[in-house]
Design brief:
The protein is an all-alpha fold. It has one domain. Helix 1 runs antiparallel to helix 2, helix 2 crosses helix 4 and helix 3 packs across helix 4. The chain is globular, with a radius of gyration of 19 Å. The N terminus is likely disordered.
Length: about 150
């Protein structure tokens, strides 16, 4: 009797759920930050009296579109369940963890980005406003984006 050929079967693939959640929440945070940056640029371009009236709707729209595209692409490119390259979410409740983790990612990304671009550390109020924006907008963005692949 010969030993089994190890190339006939794939080794078991650990698919860490936390890694998928971390990756998706990073994508959501990047969509949020990109939306806020575009909204900030639009505010400076239009120069209205109220910054939030311009920046928030633009940022919310870009967050929704960007994260929806991310979810659709990762779902489409994923193969069968059990495949190591599978990035699609397997549980709808993972959206809760994505929602919460994105707030942490944004703070971790925004502080150094602000320091690099402006030369000084951002005010605590900017981090607070970023978190409030995300908590409000992502309450709609996450379920709406996950509904695409349902």
């Amino acid at each position: 009797m010969s030993p089994p050929d190890l190339h006939d079967t794939d080794p078991p693939c650990p698919r860490p759920r936390w890694l998928r959640i971390g990756l998706h929440s990073l994508a959501l945070a990047l969509a949020n930050l990109a939306g806020l940056a575009v909204g900030f640029a639009a505010y400076h371009l239009l120069n209205p009296n109220n910054q939030l009236a311009v920046q928030v709707p633009i940022a919310a729209g870009i967050s929704l579109v960007g994260f929806s595209i991310w979810i659709a692409v990762t779902h489409r490119t994923s193969r069968e369940p059990g495949d190591c390259s599978r990035l699609a979410l397997e549980r709808r409740r993972d959206g809760i963890w994505i929602y919460l983790s994105a707030v942490l990612w944004s703070a971790l990304l925004f502080l150094p980005a602000h320091w690099i671009t402006t030369g000084y550390v951002s005010a605590v109020s900017n981090i607070g406003m970023l978190a409030l924006f995300q908590l409000a907008v992502n309450l709609f963005v996450v379920p709406a984006s996950l509904e695409i692949v349902r």
